[in-house]
Task: structure prediction
Amino acid sequence: MPSVRMCARCVKPSTTLNGDMSIFGSGGCELCEAARMSEWFYEDDECWIAECESCAVPMVVWREHNANPSDEVKTRLHEKLEKVVEEFFDFEMRIDNNMRTIPDHYHAHARPKGGFYGYGLRRAK
Result:
């Protein structure tokens, strides 16, 4: 398992069933949790790419809980997202870096040019 810096919400102390304190809290950052709630297209030690539950477009999520990756990291993440769109979909995309609902953990969406949601996007054959 790669070394990942977790957010303070994810590692806050909590009480275990036997009353001891644990450094692992109940969680709080959905992106750190990385629950497989939708289709996943790619993952490695740096990121994972899945369909966004809210808007149905591919979304790349940096595994480090940080809202401000370096330009080099962003470039790598965006390249991986573009490759997923090329492999699995048939639409012209644009990168959307606006982290609307989870602003403290970097992620970016591959939105259709001229659009926002991905419902009904054509899949690659």
Observations:
- Residues 94 and 111 are 5 Å apart (CA to CA).
